[in-house]
Design goal:
Strand order of the largest sheet: 3-2-1-4-5-7-6
Radius of gyration: 17 Å
Bound molecules: 3,4-dihydroxybenzoic acid, magnesium ion
CATH superfamily: Vaccinia Virus protein VP39
CATH class: Alpha Beta
Structural class: alpha/beta
Number of helices: 8
């Protein structure tokens, strides 16, 4: 068996992306504009964008909540999966990110379905109680706050709500309890919460893609 060297997994990622994803101009330009504006290159990989899109469809989600908009790349993918009348509410703490996202969402033609709420998640999420229940929640913001975001995902959800958490492997560091990274400890606290909090049933999948070795947690609100 061939080991998944970076060269090999990058080749496979490219092959699968080209075979299955088919990014259009709006998605490609969203990434170009995001880079030009100096935002970090940490948007989800194309295959993960398509995964989120399919999860919205599989769940039949009408109300989607995203925590961490960045430049709007993942919000475009999820907005395109919504049924008539559906919406994405996406929370962003950094005004500069929100401004880039606004342009990207407009070019993708989904501004009518996506609302960006600016502010820190811990401030903004309590204000969204009247907008729920959300059918799918994608958590992709500061990892130190993952337990806070999971708590709000459960409160703003309903039994059956799908919860997806990005970046739960972090190049394998998640399995290192002695890690000195506060992000890794945030991720670990989030996974431990998913395991023990009776409001969730969860698993996690490792990914090797354009962004390297990482992974997604997938949970359902019980
Ligand atoms: C980081 C954050 C992300 O959401 C991501 O997908 C990759 C990296 C980070 O903060 O390092
Ligand atoms: Mg992420």
């Amino acid at each position: 068996m061939t080991l998944p060297t970076p060269d090999a997994w990058t080749r496979v990622d490219r092959y699968l992306s080209e075979a299955l994803v088919g990014e259009d101009t709006a998605l490609r330009e969203a990434v170009v504009d995001q880079r030009a504006a100096g935002l970090p290159a940490i948007e989800v990989a194309p295959l993960t964008g398509k995964f989120l899109h399919l999860m919205v469809r599989v769940a039949g989600a009408r109300r989607v909540l995203e925590i961490g908009t960045l430049g709007g790349y993942s919000a475009i993918w999820m907005a395109r999966a919504l049924p008539e009348g559906g919406s994405v509410t996406t929370v962003e703490a950094e005004p500069r990110n929100a401004a880039v996202a606004r342009g990207n969402l407009a070019r993708a033609g989904v501004s009518d379905r996506v609302r960006i709420v600016e502010g820190r998640g811990s401030d903004v999420l309590p204000t969204l109680v009247g907008d729920g229940p959300f059918d799918l929640v994608f958590i992709d913001a500061d990892k130190e706050s993952n337990t806070v975001y999971l708590d709000w995902a459960a409160r703003l959800g309903r039994p059956g709500t799908v919860v997806i958490v990005d970046n739960v492997v972090r190049s394998g560091e998640v399995a290192n309890p002695a890690s000195e990274s506060p992000q890794v400890h945030g991720v670990r606290r989030g996974l431990e919460m998913l395991a023990r909090d009776p409001r969730f049933d969860a698993t996690a999948l490792q990914t090797l893609d354009a962004k390297g070795w990482d992974g997604l947690a997938l949970a359902v609100v019980v």
